[in-house]
Amino acid sequence: MMKILYNYQRYAVFVIVALVSLASFVGAALYSAWLLVPAILAGALFLLGIHDLRQRKHAILRNYPVAGHIRFLLESFRPEIRQYIIESDHDEVPFSREERGLVYQRAKGAEDKRPFGTMEDVYGSGYAWLTHSATPTSIADTDFRVRVGGPACKQPYDASLFNISAMSFGSMSANAILALNSGAAKGGFAHDTGEGSISRYHREGGGDLIYQVASGYFGCRREDGGFSQEKFAELAADPQIRMIEIKLSQGAKPGHGGMLPAAKISPEIAEARGIPMGIDCVSPAAHSTFSTPIGLMQFVGQLRDLSGGKPVGFKLCIGHRREFMCMVKAMLETGIVPDFIVVDGAEGGTGAAPVEFANRVGMPMLEGLTFVHNTLRGAGLRDQIRIGAAGKIVSAFDIARTLALGADWCNAARGFMFAVGCIQAQSCHTNCCPVGIATQDPVRQRAIDVGDKSERVARFHRNTMKALGEIAGAAGLKHPSDFLPYHLMFRQEDNSFLDGNEAHPYLPDGFLVSGEEIPELADWYVRWGRADAESFAPLEIPSWPFNRRSAA
């Protein structure tokens, strides 16, 4: 008997619900009508249990009728339980509570200081710190700028060192776009449109725009999905557009296209992207306008001419390093040099990405940035091209480290989302964003007060630049652009540490094209020799045992 009870204990809740339902109905009939309330509730649960036993979709519900729903209930708000109750200040999911709190405080203008000392494990592997000077300086003007625009650029742009990274209208709500762009206008920094083109909310905000041209060519698209020179020239003439960015890939899902279902395409999205209603909107993985390194450079030159000489560059997450060298060789062969390159890291964010892509595809930003910076130095082109960088940048230290390793400016997407009110619910892909940022639900996005949130965006930027000025002054510098690798130290696994010049050195100018090989850089020459300006395909596929000289 006990064995039978043990084997069927999984049905205990269902049996109890059935008995309570029966007893309540009997009690209601014989004693009090008030017993109808528990009778109805228990009866509903009993019917739910019957359904659980009959359905074939969830094995756990067939074995644990009624009780099995507790598992799904707990799973539904597991992220919130972790974020608000279990998570420590330094758990990354993907941004820690400390990082989010810093943004919230600076956006609100609240106290952002820390009492009692650091909570970092300063002797732990991976810890990095900034070296300071015995003669610190004071930097009064923290409106830090960098001029973007090479010799072929007729309309250079003085960009802030900290700008809003690419986020499209469609993935972001109208009020979120308007708050971000209005904040950029108030703070005097730039807002990347993302591949979804320029919406009426970008224009209403009035902030400087970086117009992103991606594989879908939204905003400058022919009916067949190809690139339209006429539409691009008309759009690029808008004085609000300060730079043009060709998107080759993004860190969160490099090499992956996308599709916006027809059901999610509103008239406003269709207007911004130049696409019809009622048809799925496809973003191919690759561009159709070019397929070779030389073709990419010719496209850069074409967009610069069509835009009247505005700065034109491209954005990518580094994959095959040889392929980036192919692009650099194409610059040398054609004489067409982009005004800027934005390096996105594998730690970058997106509204939705396959787990394999988000976790395992693409090079992290610091390594990608170092490689791009040194390849351009090796080709003798670094002084002609500005480098932007993006990838989990929210603090002044993040910016300082990125500038030290070769960037000229930084972009952030999720940091500015926090400034608008993002709580990292990680429901961006569900259209049910609890704060109205990553949704097209008109009711949900009403929660965003554009006036208040735009002030927070501008304040977050201003306070972060002030903090950047303070740590640049602590290092004895006059401007954050003076940061170099030696200003950083990196803790190693054995409790030793490396100087930044050892961990991420600047390689010699022109070393790839000088004709004289430096033995310590043999793997760079091997990869450079395999790169071809005419094609991204490898001249040969390495099949020999791996070593530094034959690295792919």
Explain how this protein is built.
The protein is an alpha/beta fold. Helix content is 40%, strand content 11%. The protein has 21 helices and 15 strands. The strands form four sheets. The chain has an eight-stranded parallel sheet with strand order 4-13-12-11-10-7-6-5. Strands 1-14-15 form a three-stranded antiparallel sheet. Strands 2-3 form a two-stranded antiparallel ribbon. Helix 2 runs antiparallel to helix 3 and helix 12 crosses helix 13. It is globular. The model has no long low-confidence stretch (mean pLDDT 91). GO terms for molecular function: glutamate synthase activity. This is FMN-binding glutamate synthase family protein.
Distance between the termini: 68 Å
Strand content: 5-15%
Describe the oligomeric state of these chains in a short phrase: single chain
* Helical proportion, percent range: 25-40%
- Please state the structural category: alpha/beta
How many strands appear in the DSSP assignment? 15
Strand order of the largest sheet: 4-13-12-11-10-7-6-5
From the spread of the alpha carbons, the general shape counts as: globular
Spans of at least 5 consecutive residues with low confidence: none
Q: What's the mean pLDDT score?
A: 91
Q: Note the main sheet.
A: 8 strands, parallel
Q: Enumerate how many helices there are, as a single number.
A: 21
Radius of gyration: 28 Å
Organism: Microbaculum marinisediminis
Protein name: FMN-binding glutamate synthase family protein
InterPro entries: Aldolase_TIM, GltB, Glu_synthdom, YerD
Pfam family, one: Glu_synthase
